[in-house]
Every structure is written in C-alpha cells, then in structure tokens.
C-alpha cells in the first residue's frame, strides 16, 4: 500500500514538472534586461500625499479605467461591462450615459462635446450628447481589425491619436502581453476628414496612455512594457511619412525617449494644456482634462500628469531576461504569479520630461492601481483598474 502511494506521488510530481516545463503556452517571450529599479528617494521619494483621495461612487460596477469631464463639469468613467457612467459636477447622482457593448478605456471630449472612446473590443467610437454610440474605425488602412485599443487624445486639427496596446492579446489578457514582452503595440492617427486611421508608430511594448503637447509639436505615448514614455515629433517628416515609424533604430528627429526607467508601470497620461483650446476654461465644449488656460504652454504653467498603475517588482524584473522562466510562470496558478502591489503613484512632468510632482500613498486603504489622471479646476480625477469608484484629489 505504501509503495503504491509513493509511486502515485512520484508520478504526480513528474507530471507536474512536465507540465510546468513543457506544456504549450500562447506567449513567445523575448529576453530583455531592464535597468535597476529606481529607489523611492529623491524625485521618487516615498510619501502619503494621496492619502486624502475622495472616492466618488459610480454605482455597481468595476474598473473605471479613465475619466473625462465635459463642458458643464460633469464627470464620466467607463466600467468593464461596457457602461459609461455620468456623475454631476459635485460627484453625485451616478447614471448610465451610454453603453458601448464592449470595454471602454480611453475617454476624451472633442470640441463639439462628443465623447470619443477607445474601446478595447469595439474600436474607436464617438458618443454624442444623447449617449448614442457611433463607430469611427475598427481597423487601420492596412485592413487589419484592431486588437486591444487603449487610450487617446485629440490634436488642434481634430486628428485623434490613439494606441493599440496589443495586436495579439485581448485586454482581458494584458498580463500575457507583459509576460511575453514583444513589440505588439502601436500608435495610430485617425483623420476625421477622411474617416480613416493609419499607423504612425509601430513596435511598441504595450502601448498605453496618449497626450498631445499644447503647442502641437509632439505626442507622448506611455510604453508600459519598457517602463518609459516615448515622444513622437509631429513634424512634416513624421506626418508625411509613407510608412510607419519604428521604435527600434528610430531617428531622434521623429521619435525619442521622453522619460526612461520609471519606478512603476506607466499607464495613462494627460496634459493640463492644449493649443486646440479643448478645455472648458478655454473653449466651451472641450475637455478640461487637457488644459488649464487658453494658452498654458506660453504661460509656463503646463504639465503632463502620468499614472503609474503599480510599482515595479524586483521579481518580475529578474524574470525579464529569461524567456523560459516566464513560460514557467505563465503555467503557474494565477495566485502564484506576480501580482500588482496595492499602491497609489502619480507623477507630474514638465515639457522636458523632468519630474515636478510626486504623489504617492502606500496605505492599505489607498486608492490603488491608478490607471489615468486628469486635472480640472485645480483638482485631480483618477480612474483605476482596481477600484469601483472615481478618485478625486484637491491640489494644494
């Protein structure tokens, strides 16, 4: 009897090892060695400035990733079940504004008061003031249907810049894309006059947040998989290029690194100014999340807000140079895989990519996994992939 039990245990262990080491997996990991994780000192000094964040109830739902504010100061956020919820300016009276039938992620208002949406399932959408949803594009000029769309911003000429996080994995499997560490993402541009989208920059390691500079000379793209933010120059050479730019071997006059080796996973990015006059304070009908005055760039009060959805983990970084080990990790139960730390982390950057604000909170009850941050009337609003509410934080 004991011999049979021992044989069974040996066989079970052997089968488990065979599974862990050799079972087929959907990821094809590439080796990459990141720089050492910056310590939470100096410009990244640990603090609890985000402790007073207020939670605004959206009703039943989860993971309101992005936030937008309309010309009347009403607040909008999208749940993972497809609903976009509207709050009154004081953060009360949640109601369903629209339902995309997919997964609304990026949100921003255009000059006409339409809510533009990057939906990870449906594509690039436009929602009018009555909550009616219209498809703008579900594929680029290459004819290939979009994968997981992520974030967006609007330029002064109406061009919509938006990201496809991955052309391989759906957003529900975003961890797979990060484990694989392949350049599956891209930045696209939608021309409203032509009604077409084209790829502007390809080869991005999990393309995430988007923000156009207020002087319209560049657009920022958060590259989550490489812990950095890229800057794409909106010059004639870039905009008139007949083929997409590449992140590898790029010309600095087209693409360069805005900020590198961040202490966390960069997610959403927004600006406090936009020369298109897209703010409610500058131009009625626009997006207050993108501007603080009619011309904040020249006034010198402009900044980018960047959300770090979770701090980097030493264990995960140690796995990145080893594709085989990441396959083993993929085969482990989810409970044994690296998981996001419950933490609040937001940075403000100037126009040169220097850190000028550092907001954190590591307490157990913090507003965690901040995925997007926008500024409106000297107040920050947060979206999250780990909360059920919108966060609100008054700037001092």
What does this structure look like?
With 396 residues, the chain is mainly beta. Helix content is 13%, strand content 37%. The protein is built from 6 helices and 25 strands. It has helices at 2-22, 174-180, 236-239, 296-299, 314-319, 323-331, and strands at residues 54-57, 67-69, 75-78, 83-87, 95-99, 104-109, 115-119, 123-127, 133-137, 148-154, 160-166, 185-191, 196-204, 207-212, 218-223, 228-233, 245-246, 255-259, 264-271, 304-311, 344-349, 355-361, 370-376, 379-384, 389-394. The strands form 6 sheets. The chain has a 5-stranded mixed β-sheet with strand order 10-11-12-13-17, with no helix packed on it. Strand 12 and strand 13 (196-204) form a beta hairpin. The protein is globular, with a radius of gyration of 21 Å.
Instruction: Indicate the percent of residues in helices.
Output: 10-25%
Overall radius of gyration: 21 Å
> How does the overall form come out from the CA principal axes?
globular
Strand order of the largest sheet: 10-11-12-13-17
Counting H and I runs of at least 4 residues, what is the number of helices? Answer: 6
Sheet-strand content, in percent, reads 35-45%
**Overall pLDDT:** 90
Total beta strands = 25
What can be said about the biggest beta sheet?
A: 5 strands, mixed
Low-confidence stretches: 274-299
N- to C-terminal separation? 73 Å
What structural class do helix, strand and pairing data support?
mainly beta
